[in-house]
Amino acid sequence: MKSANISLYYEKSLEGYEPFLINLVDTPGHLDFSGKVTRALRLIDGVVVVVDAVEEIITQSETVIKQALQEGVKPVLFINKIDRLVRELKLSDEKIKTKYIRIIKSFNTLIERYAEHPFNKRWKISPLAGNVAFGSALHRWGFTLNILEQSDLKFKDIRKRYNKETYTKESYSDLATYFPIHKAILEMIVDHLPNPREAQKYRIEKIWDGDINSPLGKAMVNCDPNGPLILCLSKVQADKHGLIGTGRIFSGNCLKKSDILVLRENKYDTIQRLSIFMGQRREQVEKIPVGNIVAVEGLKKIKSGETIIDRHKFDGMVPFENLKYVTTPVVTVSISPNLLSKLDQMEKLINNLLIEDPNLRFEINEENGEYLLSGVGTLHLEVSINELKKRGVDISMSEPRAVYKESCKKKSSVIFIKSMNNETILELKIERLDNKTLKFFRTHDYKAYKPLDRLKNALEENTNLSNDEIENFWICDEDQNILIYQGGTKLNDFYRNLIIEIIEKIHLNGLLCGEKLTEIKFIIKNLTINNLKEEDAHIDLSAMFYEAIKKGLNEAELILLEPLYNTVIQLPPNYIKNVVSLLTKYSAKIKEINPENEYQAIIELLLPVRNSMKFAEDIRSSTSGRAFWQNEFYAFMEVPKHESKRIIQDLRFSKGISW
Questions:
Q1: Which of 8, 522, 532, 621 has the lowest tally of Cβ within 10 angstroms?
Q2: Residues 6 or more apart from 135 whose CB is under 8 A from it?
Q3: What is the pLDDT of residues 18-30, one digit of tens each?
Q4: What is the pLDDT of residues 383-422, one digit of tens each?
Q5: 413 and 548: one domain?
Q6: Are 236 and 211 in contact (CB under 8 A)?
């Protein structure tokens, strides 16, 4: 389940074509790895979507296509596993044609729905246009309509090779000679997918929030080789030599020993080595021109989504739009090395894995010393654990469980707290974040908005914060808790940083069952500090803030939140009753049932993550394995009252929290 890059130079691969270079990125399609898909899409301008001819366009295929279109990436279609339609399903030519039409129609419907004007019309596919290919990747053959028309073989000849009672590899092996799959794919890529000069004219304004008419904006829009170096990193890996950043050059040329600015970190650095990818191998080079994918080495502090620019020409540059992941970590496991002596090595490997995969979370439970690894789904965690084992540490893993969080339901009054000596006074208010504000902080990296006026404008346009709250906004943490300081006394950096640190620590352990606090607005109405020594400040202020937050949360009514999946199930219509009968058992709520046609029905529902593992087992057995489904993170929502007491008790018991 890894994504892999390769840069391919073609001198004489297709007749009548100039030599060309293709930067190819292969990504997994499973929704647990949607973060990898999102990061890969930032690098590319076109995508070959592979659809199973038997299953047709399933729900997770729809999600990946939607991601591509929202990033301004143009798709073409390869319909795979054509051989199975003949040798397994034994479909007639007419039924195979019906399948093709249905797949292509569904694909075009998604383009119409998710691509922006005018591309929702221009990018539609058709076999006659040559942007649809058919074949069998396993058997290494494929064709477009153009290739089929020029060949001596027709579809009936393909059918004959798979129609035999006991066919062997030799019976169909010559298809790879008549219809080499690489030729069909290359023909679609070269004829129908845009080169960087074409694509950057419309993509830059989708992925970059700066001034398109500025010198830097024009350099990227025009894919200018003479412009300043501008590089967007989409992936960062750690190896024994340091960090390796993979990115796309949107302007200028990338040279070895280039002096650059790491924009978000605001750090100057020098690129020590350059390379291009050949699968998992890298080839060292001296220079890579604009429009290509590059691997840079030697940079000390970089993260996925970082922007790199020529250190001498960065005026007016803003970072690239933050990568918007489709999902968030909602499943967690407790892990431990089988050998205690491997503990330090395990932590080091996990930290490297966190750099490579921003969808993972790792933490140590302070109450019981548990090592917790959280991910998008069970498959995501299993693959991550296997990766740690491959790197040299044998690890045991607990049963997966849902990630819970705590929040409040209402507003508190202003809580008034005095220090032990009655000289330091804190007034604090707590309330739940509204949905509009929450959506902004969940989908945007507010730290990327520089200068400060740009952040204030974004908050004014995209949140329900008042002008006074925007003026006094301090931070938003990774659990979407925001801190606002409205005190009349201006605090110096020492006290500001100390308060942020205290609230960050308090939010890690909620009052109900020790889960993280989320979606809360902490408003400091007043903080008057008198006769407080800096060496005593941490202890005194921690006690005051803890007491104030505890009172405020109890007054605002503490609640337990759980993650819900938006689950979309595709299945034959005659199995709808079987699935619906399971829903009450698993606290699932139906959003929509669409008995689309005789081929498949669609059920869309909200399913608690805590029930998703057993639900998957039941749905397989109740549909004889004929249902396909995907789970996509929907939101954290309140656990129903009749279930919350038991879950809270179980969580407290598992953590050894005393009553």
A1: 621
A2: 78, 79, 80, 82, 141, 142, 143, 179, 181, 184
A3: 778 888 887 765 5
A4: 889 988 988 889 888 899 999 999 999 999 999 999 888 8
A5: yes
A6: no
